[in-house]
Amino acid sequence: ILPRFTLFLSGSPVLHLSSDHLTFACKQADAERTLTHGFSVFFPLDLNFQYFWKWSAFEDYLLFCFGFTVLCAVVTLLLLDSAVFVETLGSLALMFEAMLGLPQLLQNFDNRSTKGMSVKMVLLWTAGDVFKTTYFVMNESPAQFWVCGSVQIMIDVFILLQVLLYNQDSRVKLG
């Protein structure tokens, strides 16, 4: 079954469109190198992330996401028996989830303001993260669970401190 599945994927229009977009991003990086250095050298893994997220159509983005998801699913199925892979995948998933508040923290820092941000939302994030982390600690879950929960709580607290720091001159709207 697996060779047919791989053969099916290799002819997939989803992967074809995704590879076209990646090829464009690599060619764009090569063109920039030619303009900058006066010569062209193409590296197969050369990718300019400045152009990667500039999709020409939302459908192309969705197709790339679908193709990437299928690729990840196939890799996961192939490596499911590897304890190292499973632990690494789980830890990465937890760390990505722990970083969900980081873009808000950085945006607040860049703007030196929390204008437009819902403080209630951050308070609910914090409450959820505290309850979740407490549950992990009390049930003696593996360390990565409570470590990532602690990172989430720390980010939430920093965001709440930004609310206090950046809104000293005006009353804070809690909604």
TrEMBL record:
TM region(s), chain numbering: 61-80, 144-166
Keyword Secreted recorded: no
Pfam families from the UniProt entry: PQ-loop (PF04193)
Main localization category: membrane
GO cellular component, one term: membrane
Subcellular location: Membrane
One BP annotation, GO: phospholipid translocation
Top-rank lineage group of the source organism: Eukaryota
Record key words, sorted: Membrane, Transmembrane, Transmembrane helix
Topology class, membrane: Multi-pass membrane protein
PANTHER family attached to this UniProt entry: PQ-LOOP REPEAT-CONTAINING PROTEIN 1 ISOFORM X1 (PTHR14856:SF11), PQ-LOOP REPEAT-CONTAINING PROTEIN 1-LIKE PROTEIN (PTHR14856)
Protein's name in the database: Si:dkey-246g23.2
